[in-house]
Amino acid sequence: MLLDPRKIGMAAVLAALVGLLYQAVLPDLVLDWWHDENNSHGFLVPLVSLYVAWERRDALRRLAVRPSAGGGALLVLGILVLVAGGVGAVQYVERVSVIVVLAGLIAFNLGWGHLKALSFPVLYLLLAIPPPAMVLNQVAFPLQLLAARGAEQLLFALGIPVLREGNVIELAHTTLEVAEACSGIRSLVSLLALALCVAYFFHRGWVARTVLTLSAVPIAVVTNVARVAGTGVLVQYFGVEAAEGFYHSFSGWFLFMAAMVLLVAESVLIRRLERRLGDGGGRPGAA
Asked: Is 286 inside a domain boundary?
């Protein structure tokens, strides 16, 4: 079904207005992706969303175009959220309002059926927005303690004398502190984005998708424990210098790659289990 040129023009005008509204918010978000390696997955998230939307193009063509006034209300709500975030100087709220505005634009111009069909790619965009500092701080400290405790047990199993107090690990020659940056919280967000992507493209059932997505949490925790323990091993046998500089940077990337491998291996095992149970693995349809 061909769209009315007037409706296309209206959509273009609305998109231009939204661009003006977010002329400060979106560039600042991109800068966060660029300058913070923990948020660099933000560059990939919109690409995945666009691909999923493009993949559903045939299903979208079959849907009737039914512009909704309710979508206009959702659009206005998103703009109000943007204003509220600006007035309250809450950056996260300003950024999240982009998702609400986008959903409102789809429903207002195309209808709720189109929004439902595009619900996954729209909601997936939330993973491109770095969590607020308040949430990170609340989650980071328990993860710091968990990483320190796990590293303590692993070092002890390797025969290395160790004493832990909170998130501080005492070794024979030095002291290691599991700081917020080493809590694994930021890599966890990236791994969740990857897990959702793998779950969507390679699994049909919601049980398999949920299990795979949630497993990103223990995988991130285990790999982070291995990183902290590895630092302790290097310090114990090769000195503090060995655990600084190149190793500190490289270990983060290496263990994130290891987490990706574990995630993919789990996906393969789940697919095999799905086939054995007769559910049929594979890529989901457009519905």
From this structure: no
* Whether residue 182 sits in one domain with residue 102: no
Point out the domain boundary residue: 91, 111, 130.
130
Rounded to 5°, angle at Cα 194 from 107 and 85: 50
Residue 2, phi then psi, degrees to nearest 5: -80, 140
Q: Residue by residue, what is the 3-state secondary structure of 85-149?
A: HHHCCCHHHHHHHHHHHHHHHHHHHCCHHHHHHCHHHHHHHHHHCCCCHHHHHHHHHHHHHHHHH
150/137 Cα distance (integer angstroms): 20
What is the residue-level pLDDT of the chain in tens, covering all 287 positions?
445 566 667 667 777 777 788 988 999 999 999 988 778 889 999 999 999 999 998 999 899 889 899 998 999 999 999 999 999 888 999 999 999 999 998 998 889 999 999 999 999 999 999 888 788 778 888 888 898 999 999 998 988 888 888 888 888 878 888 877 677 777 788 889 999 999 999 888 888 899 999 999 999 888 889 888 888 888 888 777 766 666 666 777 788 888 899 999 999 999 888 888 774 444 444 43
Please name every residue paired with 168 in a beta bridge, in sequence order, or none if there are none. Answer: 165, 177
Which of 130, 158, 183 terminates a domain? The answer is 130
Parent domain of 111 = 5-130
DSSP3 helix / strand / coil % (the chain, rounded to 5): 75, 5, 20
